[in-house]
Amino acid sequence: MLSDTLIDALFAGLSEEPPWTTFLDVLRRHTGADHAFLYCQPTDSTFGRGVYRWSGEITTDEDEESFFRNRWLMGPVPWTDFENGRVYDVLAIIRANASRNAALVQQLEQHRISAVRLMKVTDPTGVVSSLFLSKAGGALAASADQTLTQLAPVLRGAVQVYVAREHERYRASFGIDAVRRSRIGWLTLDGRGRVIEHDEGCAPVLGRGGMLGIAANGRLMVDPLHRREVYGKLRAIADGTDTRPHSIILCREPWIELTLQPARRKPVSAGAMETVLMYVHYDLEEAATDERRAGEMLNLSPRETELALVLARGASVKQAAAELGLTVLTARSYLRSIYSKTGAKGLTDLVRILTRSSLRQEA
């Protein structure tokens, strides 16, 4: 009967990093082996390019992983042709062709390896998993072969789960990268503004210039200019009086826009209160590029450039001052300097000059 401890370790190993470390340790002790090796690879891939895990102390000058890769996985033993689920005495196979395998026999004798067992399984996707046990200067436990035989169908199932999970992780990595490149993140909140969850996409925006953040008590922080509007929409959506999506522009330079809507699902941590889904759209990199280009073309200071670009997006001087953390008097002083450097006669003329400068850069 296969040990419950061994089965538990096999499936718990799916969540380990690296996978199956504990399982191989348990298997090694259970069978009396010095080393346990697990090698997984697709049937059509090159030898040595699969997932390789091992357990056991390295006591030789040669790295154990290199030894087993070079002498067995890529050596003369036709392990890929072995039957699934059958246990093979690898030393007997090697010694049966001792003259052809002279170099390998010499290596085995050098390392005093006295027993080797191999069992392989193939999952439905074509991934071949080979499990090796080795012993130096003695014999494996009498139950070792039986353990490997009973382990075969369980190992096949575990590898199938592992392959499916890795496939989903691989696909998800593209989705995460696409979201990151599209400069969008999300948060879920309750009606009181407590942040329940958020993704990595929000990281570049949270805490930037006081526009958006998360307080120590877990509540959403919004800049004073938009706080009442954001919290008003949050409460209306959470209590069900408003189910429409709402868009709020927090900042025009750099561009930060919020979209609030009811969340179709809610986590257990949200409790009884309805949750609100908030998407955060932003364009920080493009904004930085625009600032640099405008400053170079028009000989504006960094602060003057920021103000000019915010005004060009349609904000009033008062709104621009609030977004940039300036007093209105300071903003007007910057604006006079901008007019002087660019020759603009007013906001409309300034927009025309900034647009013309941008077109020159693109040309």
- Low-pLDDT segments: 268-272, 359-363
Count of DSSP-assigned helices: 12
CATH architecture descriptor text of the largest domain: 2-Layer Sandwich
Dominant shape = elongated
Instruction: Find the CATH topology of the largest domain.
Output: Beta-Lactamase
Describe the fold and architecture:
There is one protein chain. The chain contains twelve helices and twelve strands. With 363 residues, the protein is an alpha+beta fold. The chain has three domains: 4-174, Beta-Lactamase; 182-283, PAS domain (Beta-Lactamase, 2-Layer Sandwich); 299-362, Winged helix-like DNA-binding domain superfamily/Winged helix DNA-binding domain (Arc Repressor Mutant, subunit A, Orthogonal Bundle), CATH 1.10.10. It has a five-stranded antiparallel β-sheet, with helices on both faces. A five-stranded antiparallel β-sheet has the order 7-6-12-11-10. A two-stranded antiparallel ribbon has the order 8-9. A hairpin with a 5-residue loop joins β8 (212-214) and β9. Mean pLDDT is 79; it is low at 268-272 and 359-363.
Pick out its properties:
Beta-Lactamase, 12 strands, elongated, 5-stranded antiparallel beta sheet, disordered C terminus, alpha+beta, 363 residues, Arc Repressor Mutant, subunit A
